[in-house]
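Forum: Protein Structure Q&A
Topic: Joint prediction for protein chains with partners

I've read a bunch of threads here and the consensus seems to be that you should model interacting components together rather than docking separate models afterwards. I'd like to see that in practice. Below is the full input, 541 residues plus whatever partners are listed. Could one of the regulars post the assembled result?
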Amino acid sequence: MAYSDKVVDHYNNPRNVGSLDKSRNDVGTGMVGAPECGDVMKLQIQVNSSTGVIEDAKFKTFGCGSAIASSSLATEWLKGKTVDEAMEIKNTDIVNELTLPPVKIHCSVLAEDAIKAAINDYRTKQGAGVSAETVSH
Amino acid sequence: MSKPIYFDNHATTPVDPRVLEAMLPYFSDNFGNAASRNHAYGWAAEDAVEKSRKQIASLVGANSKEIVFTSGATESNNLALKGVAEMYAEKGNHIITAATEHKAVLDTCKHLEKKGCRITYLPLKGDGLIDLDMLRDSITDKTILISIMYANNEIGVLQPIKEIGKIAKEKGVLFHSDAVQAVGKVPVNVIEDSIDLMSITAHKIYGPKGAGALYVRRKSPRVQLTAQMDGGGHERGMRSGTLNVPGIAGLGAACEIAQKEMPEESVRLRGLRDKLRKTLESNLEEVYINGSMEHRLPNNLNMSFAYVEGESLLMGINDIAVSSGSACTSATLEPSYVLKALGLGDDLAHTSIRFGLGRFNTEEEVDYVAKKMIDVVNKLRELSPLWEMFKDGVDLSKVQWTAH
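Posted by a regular:
Agreed with the consensus. Here's the joint model:
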């Protein structure tokens, strides 16, 4: 299977690899997928709670090159967006940007799910106000 | 060192230059039809075919009259299973095989099930070997055939062929073995192994693609087959079709070279394989060998690199040709059924790599591959949330994953 240049670029130079402190109230963590399915994505955002702007984003992904590229691209797109804007990112945007073949569309779906899960986690924390230990995998 | 480095010799092998040399005259000067009995072109072609038959028979301890030429092992497997099922339909309709057989056997069995055969798919033990007691217990008075491969194409595990042959003989059941990975790599002898039918292909032993053979025993017992290809009655009526003379000459030459060089070559490849294994094991944590190391082809290594998905690994080692049991590398999105049959979890099956060494691989290549593997596995583990969790002491089996 041939990979698009953009997938190869993200695979060779993944952006924003790493982890944020998931116990922090301004950090939202999304972990989606399962090892048995061959893909697990962890995506984290750090949000400025007064502006709602995502100031940092990090990821770690177990999965094929397209899954790595999808999550790497997602972190690039998330930085600088508000949480509401980030909710608008669609998996089809990722498919188009990376020119993913049909068999790899699920990688983009997973990335969208990871974004939503991270935002939901952040919002839950903000709503709850206190609990730092409610992060679920 | 030319790139990409080829470590996928279970998929296919390059044609040995000596094999090519043996084939070339039969494309041009001696282009005759081996069935043309009344002129020199036909005789020359027939001589080449008969020479090849002897070369193959010699390698596997058969009589040359017991070799039926086919287009390859898929056809040989189809002919053996369907041919026996039809010919012995009055005796019974039960066939025993194993879950880790090649698709050419498994899908043929599925076809036969639709035609009214009953198939037993034996499960495998954790090391990839079949359970002989279970085999014995599966045999009924309706059983006509046992089909068990000699060596597995993914994990290289060698089945207890002699013991299976003994059981089959004792019970009066025919025994077919798909031996494409074993012939020319380890000693195979149809007499000592009590094999009645055996599939062989040229392209796994440095011969050309499109040439194969089926060994069909002629004495004690005399095996009969219903032909699956009707036509001119070639190959004693078992397989019609004009013989692929250059391919057949290549198959014969490949067998002769294998017979001569196997003792030395298998020792050399085992040494290289073991070096690869040791280097990987001593430099990486959490790597697992799939299948028995003791009962294994000398040139095979199948390893899982936990927490690193197979396809992303292949992408990182794109100057090395290997294959993975990961779902992502197949069209089905299912990880290797062979690894799953060993009881391996899907998670580890997704992280497996098959290394198949061959005649033209060198120690320099092994060193390069080992180093590259270590670098890429380490890089991808830095990227892997599972590796991070493992390092943090999280029990991944207890995590509630979100299925998708």
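The first strand of chain A starts at residue 27 and ends at 34.
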